[in-house]
C-alpha cells in the first residue's frame, strides 16, 4: 500500500516528491516507489552508459506486459542476447530509416504553420478551452504528421483520447499493474474501450505513407506488429514526452530572460537548460546484473543481483556537485552539453543515436525551438490569454 500511496503523491508533483524525499532521507539515493531511487549524477551516468537489464516499469509505475506490444522497446534488455538484438534493430531502423524522412517533412513546415500554432495558444481560454488541451493537440498533430506523413482531425482526436483522456482507458493508465482488489472492481469495459482505440490507431498507422515501404528490422516483426510498437513509442515518448518538454520550456524560462529567438543555438541552450531544471522524463528503470555497493540513507548498502533501481534523471540533473546553483536557470553553463542526461544518454550532440538514447529526440527539440522563435512574431507580446507559456510572457525576444 505504501507503493500506491507514494505513486499518488509522486504523480501530483514529481520534482517536489523526489527532492523533498531526498532531503528527508539525507541522501540522493534512497528507497521509494518500490525500488532504489538513484539521484547521484555520476552513478546515474554509469547506469545509463552500462548495459541494462530492464523490467516492466515505465516512469513511476509497474505496467502489465500483456497490455503492451510483445517487443515493447522500453522493456527490452541489453544483457539478454535475443532482446538486445531486437532492441538494437528497432532502434536503428527508427533512427536510420524513419527519422531522416521525418526531419525532412518538418523542415518543410513553413512559418505560417507555427504562426497558426502560436495564435491558437494565445487565443486559448477566450472561448473557455484550456490552453493545455490546445497544446496537447498541437503536439499530437506535429509529432504524428512528422512521423506518418499525413493525418486527419479524427486521428488527432483518437490519439488525444488514448493518451490524455479517460485515465482508466488510456494507453498508459490502462496498462498499469493495479492491486488485485482494484482490478476486480474496475469494469472490463475500460479495457475493451482502450483496446478498441488501440486497434483503430494501429490500423491507421499501417495505412500511413511512412509504412508503405516497410522493411522489417527483424523478420518476425510484421507491419502490424511494428505499427503497434510505433504507436507505443510515438504516443509515450513522442507525444507525452514532447508535451512535457514544452511545459517545461514555457514554465521554466524566467519571465525576465533575454533571449535572441533568431539565434538557433541560443534557443537550443535555453530549451536544454529548461529540460535540465525539470526533466521531461524522470526515471530509467533497470535491475542490477550483479551485487553492488551504493551509498544510500547516509551509509554504504550492498544490493543484491536483480534489485530494482531507477536512475533518476530529475534528481541527477539537480546534483550540486555537477551543476553549480542547480535551481538557477542558466543556459550558459559550460558543462550543460557535456553533462546533460535528459534523453537517456550522457551528453548532448545533434548527431548519433546512442544505444538507448531517444531516436526521435531531435523532433520535440525542433518543435520547441520553432515555437519559441515564432513567439517573437506574435503581435500581442503579453499573451494574456495563455495559461501555460508563462515563461515567455514578458520575455525580451
Written overview of the protein:
With 397 residues, this protein is an alpha+beta fold. The chain has 14 helices and eight strands. It has helices spanning 2-12, 14-25, 41-49, 81-108, 111-123, 131-148, 153-163, 180-185, 188-206, 223-252, 264-277, 313-316, 336-339, 362-375; strands at 29-32, 35-38, 57-58, 61-62, 283-287, 292-296, 299-303, 308-312. It has a four-stranded mixed beta sheet, with helices on both faces. Strand 6 (292-296) and strand 7 (299-303) form a beta hairpin. Helix 4 (81-108) crosses helix 6, helix 6 packs across helix 7 and helix 10 (223-252) packs parallel to helix 14. It is globular and about 55 Å long. The N and C termini lie far apart (49 Å). Mean pLDDT is 81; it is low at 383-397.
Based on secondary structure, the structural category is: alpha+beta
What's the Cα radius of gyration?
A: 21 Å
How many alpha or pi helices? 14
Order of helix and strand elements from N to C terminus:
HHEEHEEHHHHHHHHEEEEHHH
Strand runs, count? 8
Give the amount of beta strand, in percent.
5-15%
For the termini, the CA-CA separation is: 49 Å
The overall average pLDDT, rounded, is 81
Shape: globular
Low-confidence stretches: 383-397
Give short descriptive properties of this protein.
alpha+beta, four-stranded mixed beta sheet, two-stranded antiparallel sheet, single chain, disordered C terminus, 397 residues
Give a brief rundown of this model.
The protein is an alpha+beta fold. It has 14 helices and eight strands. Mean pLDDT is 81; it is low at 383-397.
Amino acid at each position: 500500500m505504501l507503493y500506491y500511496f507514494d505513486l499518488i503523491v509522486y504523480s501530483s508533483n514529481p520534482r517536489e516528491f523526489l527532492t523533498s524525499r531526498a532531503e528527508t532521507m539525507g541522501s540522493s539515493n534512497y528507497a521509494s516507489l518500490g525500488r532504489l531511487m538513484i539521484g547521484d549524477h555520476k552513478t546515474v551516468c554509469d547506469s545509463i552508459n552500462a548495459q541494462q537489464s530492464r523490467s516492466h516499469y515505465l516512469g513511476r509505475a509497474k505496467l502489465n506486459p500483456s497490455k503492451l506490444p510483445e517487443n515493447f522497446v522500453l522493456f527490452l534488455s541489453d544483457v539478454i542476447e535475443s532482446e538486445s538484438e531486437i532492441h538494437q534493430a528497432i532502434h536503428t531502423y527508427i533512427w536510420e530509416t524513419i527519422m531522416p524522412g521525418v526531419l525532412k517533412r518538418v523542415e518543410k513546415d513553413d512559418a505560417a504553420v507555427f504562426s497558426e500554432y502560436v495564435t491558437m495558444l494565445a487565443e486559448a481560454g477566450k472561448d473557455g478551452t484550456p490552453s493545455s488541451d490546445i497544446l496537447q493537440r498541437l503536439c499530437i498533430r506535429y509529432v504524428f504528421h512528422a512521423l506518418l506523413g499525413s493525418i486527419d482531425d479524427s486521428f488527432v482526436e483518437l490519439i488525444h483520447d488514448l493518451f490524455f483522456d479517460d485515465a482508466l482507458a488510456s494507453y498508459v493508465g490502462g496498462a498499469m499493474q493495479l492491486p488485485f482488489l482494484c482490478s476486480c472492481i474496475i469494469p472490463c469495459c475500460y479495457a475493451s474501450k482502450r483496446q478498441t482505440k488501440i486497434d483503430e490507431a494501429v490500423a491507421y498507422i499501417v495505412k500511413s505513407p511512412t509504412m508503405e515501404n516497410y522493411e522489417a528490422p527483424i523478420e518476425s516483426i510484421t507491419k502490424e506488429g511494428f505499427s503497434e510498437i510505433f504507436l507505443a513509442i510515438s504516443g509515450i515518448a513522442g507525444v507525452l514526452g514532447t508535451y512535457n518538454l514544452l511545459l517545461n520550456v514555457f514554465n521554466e524560462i524566467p519571465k525576465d530572460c533575454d533571449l535572441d529567438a533568431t539565434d538557433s543555438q541560443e534557443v537550443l541552450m535555453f530549451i536544454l537548460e529548461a529540460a535540465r531544471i525539470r526533466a521531461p522524463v524522470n526515471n530509467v528503470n533497470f535491475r542490477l546484473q550483479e551485487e553492488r555497493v551504493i551509498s544510500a540513507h547516509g551509509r554504504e548498502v550492498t544490493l543484491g543481483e536483480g534489485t530494482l533501481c531507477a536512475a533518476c534523471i530529475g534528481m541527477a540533473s539537480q546534483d550540486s556537485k555537477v551543476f553549480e546553483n542547480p535551481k538557477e536557470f542558466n543556459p550558459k553553463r559550460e558543462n550543460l552539453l557535456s553533462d546533460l542526461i535528459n534523453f537517456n544518454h550522457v551528453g548532448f550532440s545533434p548527431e548519433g543515436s546512442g544505444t538507448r538514447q531517444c531516436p526521435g529526440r531531435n523532433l520535440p527539440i525542433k518543435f520547441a525551438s520553432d515555437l519559441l522563435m515564432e513567439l517573437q512574431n506574435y503581435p500581442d507580446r503579453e499573451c494574456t490569454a495563455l495559461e501555460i507559456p508563462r515563461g515567455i510572457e514578458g520575455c525580451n525576444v
